[in-house]
């Protein structure tokens, strides 16, 4: 009988651009204040990618170069690159292809996954199936978003939330029970009305009018999204614990999407986890969409031990949401 193969995370890496946009600086751009932003979201600053002709791949590439180094991997051995993003460099071709070319992954194929803030966990599950098949040995999942390219800096309800960044993980086969052990995802397309980009797609291609009407930016009905996010992210995180017979004591960390500290708190509360078991980076990066979860893993990597049970969960535009149960595969 052949051994069961699981997809182990064998390394993590990330990249955030140098430029820091603080709450104090935002106070000069829109009518807001540090106290409001901090108490309503938990965000203190976000990183912004400046400069001409730099897309999401510009952040994914250094993140992956670091990942290759950390995992001692030859780019020629990479089988697949999945890039989660809602801000691809171009509508087509896929950003994953640009990344593959830049890192010299000549034997890999690649494609993008568009699932907004759930993009990384959707991609992680998809990538895991390739590893579990036994036919793919090294798969990179990267979440990269240049949210500043679609944020309206005259809209105080959205510009305070988002930031730019990239995070990546390497997946490799494991036969000792480490890696992605369970996942459950949902999407509800009726939620599109509450969170979307109104123009630039095939329904409303770009015109002078769509630009003048500022339709190429994130449109969000914050309060509605908040209500769905709190309920669904908390429920799915609890459900994945329950169906894997995990008690709060068995979970080392919740790795939540970083959209709003209040959503994170509600999720931890539903799971019965104290906040010291929750990875929180929102104060530093804001909401980097596809990059929040891998950036958390990068920043907390030193605290993770082989065998730790961690739950990754997210909610985002679509609506999309889900959770992934991972048994961590290596020591710091
Ligand atoms: O990651 C993708 C999924 N997205 C999310 O999960 C985001 C979910 N939503 C949220 O995180 C929150 O809804 C926001 C952070 C976007 C907004 O927080 P809120 O507590 O829901 O605020 P609100 O929209 O209910 O607005 C409360 C008040 C309003 O004033 P009035 O009408 O009560 O006078 C807003 O105009 O706060 C006002 N407001 C602001 N005040 C200062 C809205 N934005 C700001 C601001 N600074 N930046």
Write the layout of secondary structure elements.
Elements: E1 6-15, E2 19-22, H1 23-29, H2 34-41, E3 45-48, H3 57-70, E4 80-84, H4 95-103, E5 109-113, H5 119-132, E6 139-146, H6 156-159, E7 164-174, E8 179-187, E9 195-197, H7 208-212, E10 218-220, H8 222-243, E11 253-256, H9 261-271, H10 282-285, H11 292-300, E12 309-316, E13 320-327
Parallel strand pairs: 4-5, 4-6, 11-12
Antiparallel strand pairs: 1-7, 2-3, 6-7, 8-13, 9-10, 12-13
Helix pairs in contact: 3-4, 8-9
Polypeptide structure, described:
It is a single chain. This protein has 332 residues and is an alpha/beta fold. It folds into 2 domains: 6-179, Thiolase/Chalcone synthase (Peroxisomal Thiolase, Chain A, domain 1, 3-Layer(aba) Sandwich); 181-327, Thiolase/Chalcone synthase (Peroxisomal Thiolase, Chain A, domain 1). It has helices spanning 23-29, 34-41, 57-70, 95-103, 119-132, 156-159, 208-212, 222-243, 261-271, 282-285, 292-300, and strands at 6-15, 19-22, 45-48, 80-84, 109-113, 139-146, 164-174, 179-187, 195-197, 218-220, 253-256, 309-316, 320-327. A 5-stranded mixed β-sheet has the order 1-7-6-4-5, sandwiched between helices. Strand 12 and strand 13 form a beta hairpin. Helix 8 (222-243) runs parallel beside helix 9. The longest helix has 22 residues, at 222-243. It is globular and about 60 Å long. The chain starts with 5 loop residues before the first strand and ends in a 5-residue tail after the last strand. 52% of the residues are buried. Oxa(dethia)-CoA binds next to helix 2, helix 6 and helix 8.
């Amino acid at each position: 009988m052949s051994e069961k193969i699981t997809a182990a995370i064998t390394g993590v890496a990330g990249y955030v651009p140098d430029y820091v946009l603080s709450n104090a600086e935002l106070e000069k751009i829109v009518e807001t204040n540090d106290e409001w932003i901090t108490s309503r979201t938990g965000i203190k600053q976000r990183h912004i990618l400046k400069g001409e002709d730099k897309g999401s791949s510009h952040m994914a590439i250094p993140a992956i170069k670091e990942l290759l180094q950390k995992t001692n991997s030859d780019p020629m051995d990479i089988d697949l690159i999945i890039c989660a993003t809602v801000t691809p460099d171009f509508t087509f071709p896929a950003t994953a292809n640009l990344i593959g070319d830049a890192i010299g992954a000549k034997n890999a194929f690649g494609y993008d996954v568009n699932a907004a803030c759930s993009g990384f966990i959707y991609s992680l599950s998809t990538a895991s199936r390739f590893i579990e098949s036994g036919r793919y040995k090294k798969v990179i999942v990267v979440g990269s978003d240049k949210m500043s390219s679609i944020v309206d800096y005259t809209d105080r309800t959205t510009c305070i939330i988002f930031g730019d960044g990239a995070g990546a993980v390497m997946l490799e086969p494991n036969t000792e029970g480490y890696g992605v052990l369970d996942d459950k995802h949902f999407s509800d397309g009726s939620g599109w009305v509450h969170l979307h980009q109104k123009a630039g797609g095939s329904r409303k291609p770009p015109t002078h009018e769509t630009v003048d009407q500022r339709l190429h930016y994130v449109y969000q009905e914050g309060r509605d999204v908040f209500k769905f996010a709190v309920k669904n992210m908390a429920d799915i995180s609890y459900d994945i614990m329950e169906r894997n017979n995990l008690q709060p004591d068995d979970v080392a960390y919740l790795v939540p999407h970083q959209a709003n500290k209040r959503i994170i708190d509600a999720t931890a509360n539903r799971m019965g986890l104290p906040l010291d078991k929750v990875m929180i980076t929102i104060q530093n990066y804001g909401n980097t969409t596809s990059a929040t979860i891998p950036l958390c893993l990068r920043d907390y990597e030193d605290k993770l031990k082989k065998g730790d049970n961690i739950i990754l969960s997210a909610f985002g535009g679509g609506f999309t949401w889900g959770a992934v149960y991972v048994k961590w595969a290596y020591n710091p």
